[in-house]
Amino acid sequence: YLDLFRYLLGDITKVAYMGSHRVFSWPVEETAHTLVEFESGVHGTLTATCTVPSGGNVLEVYGSEGSLFLGNKLRIVTGDEMTEEDVVFPDYYSGLLSDFGRCVGSGDVPIASGLDGLRCLQVTDAAYRSDTEQRIATVADE
Fold it and tell me: Given a cut of 60, is residue 142 above it in pLDDT?
């Protein structure tokens, strides 16, 4: 979801990260908590876990004018008003593969560029540095 964060809010400049290996004996984290700061100064949190039964995917955005909650339903709250509607998500990979095929056939630039991928990897690298060094890490801009 780092790519979605960047798409919605811009580049990430700082990261504080904590991961855990407490439930399963896997070589990777089963729970990851990430606090990020964007170039604008806005903060965001991302928690990913496979230890919560039927946790699902949820996006929550809180702002000064209202809030947005996206799971199986889209709920928008502004002041005393709330709207809610069902959301049907497409297959996550079909759009990616379709765009890849389009680019191979036409030579066009993909929707998600190599630079987008690099930026997400830089944030991931900063997250692991944050965990190892037990401090807030700055995202490298190389």
Answer: no
